[in-house]
Amino acid sequence: MTYEKPVMTASELKKMGFTREVLTKAFKDPGQTFAWKVNPFKRNSPIMVDTEGFEKWRLKQVRASRSTIA
């Protein structure tokens, strides 16, 4: 998948069609290094996402879901 920018906000990714649930799951995934809050001390701080890392994580999730189906 092609992204508009190398780092995007979660809101921008939602506009591209990703659900809030997927973005939250990615952000809260233990050990992930591609998503962070601008200010971690503020509850409503925007989440920034490195799109290259997010894409790798997303493809890994797709492969994992397909292997459980087969």
Provide a descriptive summary of the structure in words.
This protein has 70 residues and is of the alpha+beta class. The chain has one domain. Helices cover 49% and strands 14% of the residues. The protein is built from 3 helices and 3 strands. The chain has helices at residues 10-15, 20-28, 51-69; strands at 7-9, 35-37, 47-50. The chain has a 3-stranded antiparallel sheet. The longest helix is centred in the C-terminal third of the chain and has 19 residues, at 51-69. The mean pLDDT is 95.
Topology:
Layout: E1 7-9, H1 10-15, H2 20-28, E2 35-37, E3 47-50, H3 51-69
Antiparallel strand pairs: 1-3, 2-3
Number of strands: 3
Class derived from helix and strand content:
alpha+beta
Measured between the Cα atoms of the first and last residue, the distance is 24 Å
Strand content: 5-15%
Taking strands numbered 1, 2, ... along the chain, how are they ordered across the largest sheet?
1-3-2
Helix fraction bin: 40-55%
